[in-house]
Design goal:
single chain, 250 residues, alpha+beta, Immunoglobulin-like, 24% strand, globular
């Protein structure tokens, strides 16, 4: 890597011919301009004959982190900005002076959890999915439930039951919220569109309190319990939220 130190012609910044000038740890330097091959694109995934003939290799790992994880988290956040990201994640960033937006914090907190939970070296499919029970739909300093013991789906409702014990700053009077994530189906997984859907935080007949230990959320009928994950979290009178706990629906 070339270094320009005290050059009479000044510093090289940006692309010039086959070189790129930059500042590296306070040192003006230059490197060869390299065009990324981007082996994790949809075009590579579909695979044209011309690219195969030229030896272009598709990278499942790059596609898995870009689409199966980051695109899914970004899509989920964008679809729920007002009713979920802003009151929970954005509020947490503001109250803790974090230099992030709420949706960026949501993606940051969940990307590694999901990426490390499935075989990223193999093609994304219904038999090779992230473990969505590891996802956090809420964050905060309030004590979470020790566990979500069950989430039962029937006739368009999910009934969730949780442990009501508290050992820290949680209280029986904390308001409880529920959410259900629909895992991507085979048609959504095709062509790396693993978006699924989050049915946002609400309990039928709310408010439901932590001390009740159970509540029901209404979602569409005709879904499969095997593709649903239930979440519960709490908020106190000062708008402090708890991290979520989750369980696979039955």
């Amino acid at each position: 890597m070339a270094k320009y130190i005290g050059s009479p012609w000044g510093s090289l910044k940006g692309k010039l011919g086959a070189a790129v000038g930059l500042d590296w740890k306070g040192i003006d330097s230059a490197r060869v301009h390299v065009i990324p091959r981007n082996p994790g694109s949809i075009k590579k995934h579909l695979g044209s004959r011309d690219e195969c003939a030229r030896g272009v290799i598709f990278s499942p790992k790059q596609m898995n982190i870009r689409r199966a994880v980051l695109a899914m988290l970004g899509f989920t956040g964008r679809m729920n900005l007002v009713n979920w990201i802003h009151p929970i994640w954005e509020w947490y960033c503001d109250s803790h002076n974090k230099k992030l937006t709420g949706i960026n914090l949501f993606v940051k907190e969940n990307a590694r959890r999901l990426f490390n939970s499935f075989n990223t070296l193999s093609k994304f499919s219904t038999s090779n999915l992230p473990d969505y029970t590891l996802m956090q739909v809420s964050t905060g300093d309030l004590e979470p439930a020790p566990s979500l013991t069950s989430a039962v789906y029937a006739a368009g409702t999910v009934t969730l039951t949780w442990d009501t014990a508290t050992y820290g700053n949680g209280a029986a009077g904390d308001e409880a919220y529920a959410a259900v994530y629909k895992i991507p189906t085979a048609s959504e997984v095709a062509d790396y569109k693993p978006y699924g859907w989050l049915y946002t935080p609400a309990f039928a007949g709310a408010p439901i309190l932590r001390g009740a230990g159970t509540g029901t959320i209404t979602i569409p009928t005709g879904l499969s319990a095997a593709y649903l994950v239930g979440f519960v979290f709490f908020v106190d009178s000062c708008a402090n939220y708890s991290p979520s706990v989750s369980v696979q629906c039955t």
